[in-house]
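Exam review. A common question shows you a sequence with its structure tokens and asks you to describe the fold in words. Practice with the pair below. Do the first one on your own.
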Amino acid sequence: MLIEAAVLRAADAPYAIERVELADPGPGEIVVRIAGVGMCHTDLIGRVPGDLVAKPVILGHEGSGVVEAVGPGVAGVTAGDHVVMSFDSCGTCANCRDAVPGACPRMAALNMIAVPLDGRPRATDAEGNAVGNRWFGQSSFASHALGTVQNVVPVTKDVPIEKLGPLGCGVQTGAASVLISLGVKAGDDLAVFGAGAVGLAAVMAAKVAGATTIVAVDLNDARLDLARELGATHTINGADDDIAGQIRALSGGEGVQYSFDTTAVPSVVATAVASLRTTGVCGLVGVGSEEYRLDPNLLLMGRTVKGIIEGDAVPHTFIPKMIDLWRKGLFPFDRLIANYPLGEINRAEADAASGKVVKPVLIP
């Protein structure tokens, strides 16, 4: 079928809206007509110079929409279903069976390469050349995307489907990291470093969990104001002195039980660990390339640093949970969203990079 897609042809090139031929769904595959797709910081990996992500490619991995067709062997999803598209996983390895699909050994191959593993092109441009279309098992910066039974999550039809895409990755990562991976509960305290979509989702989830002290740290004062509106009890500008000391003071002098870093900035990660009490846990979800240097004495005293992928969530159960919380007015993730037509993807990217918006959602 002929679709419209935002194609990235070079790391430093603008997205170009092109007509692309998308293959019919094969075994286990599902065609989704995209109603909305979030733009996530992870999509910037496509802009890393070199061949980390082969070009040309269709990025986008927070799609939501309506199923148009299913391939052979698909069960539980039918044409007309409303769905959210999340990350892909094999579904059969030990980690998938243990309900941590984000730790699937095939995570990189299924999500980060954007090329079908069997080598058969599933999308071609006007000249008949292959275009990568398996970014996170979907490549949803397009009017239509191919997903699988593993990463397409049916949802109820009584919620606005165009808003739900960010639940598939960024919002899920922040909320599930707090509620599942860290296991924050009533009376706990948490410091969140970075008030982007992931960090603000963590703030909202901490409020849902009943955390007593929720500290948000960021350089953007407007985002700190929003963090307070969404549940933060305290905010700190990241340019302040002795942030760890301030957080320890806010938590009775001992430090917080949990800290959560979304920035991957080494100095910020070190501060997040230094903000913990002696039994505290620091969760890391930021994607970076620099080494972290931590005071070994902090870890020797019992603190833990934990890498987290997709919040340790199972999308098929956690995405409906977030929708239910939103329906009850407890998880207003839609306050993070700013809509853009798909054709204005370059403006959306610039606005996200400048901090003007938290979560752009592209509407094909």
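Now try the second one, then compare your answer with the model answer below.
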Amino acid sequence: MIIAVDIGLKRLGVAQYAAGVALPLDPILRKNRHQAARDLDLLLKEKGAQKLVAGIPKEGSSSEEMERRIRHFIGLLEFRGEVCFVDESYSSKEAFELLRGRSRDRRDGKLDSLSALVILERYLGSL
């Protein structure tokens, strides 16, 4: 089982890959980083994840700061499986294209989890 995560300031988008199928999961609402890390740890344990794929922005003016924050967040996890980082640049734009108007409310988290799915598919494509 592989879990992918798109780490945002308000939500964590989440997707899974199991039995040859990649699917978006419900996002994790983020009240603070410690609560979000606990919730992600719980999900990783419940799903029996062996690998965590996290998106890291490689483009943009604040990419270095965002990478530092994401790596810090991953460091808060108790997860001891393999952690991989994948370029998440433009994953939200790709996810928005996948939705194509099916979800009008970006606050429902579907976009975040579809972004995690894009990140997961990028990882799987690199194997």
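Model answer, second protein: The two ends are 15 Å apart (CA to CA). The domain at 2-125 is CATH 3.30.420.140 (Nucleotidyltransferase; domain 5). Full marks require stating both points clearly.
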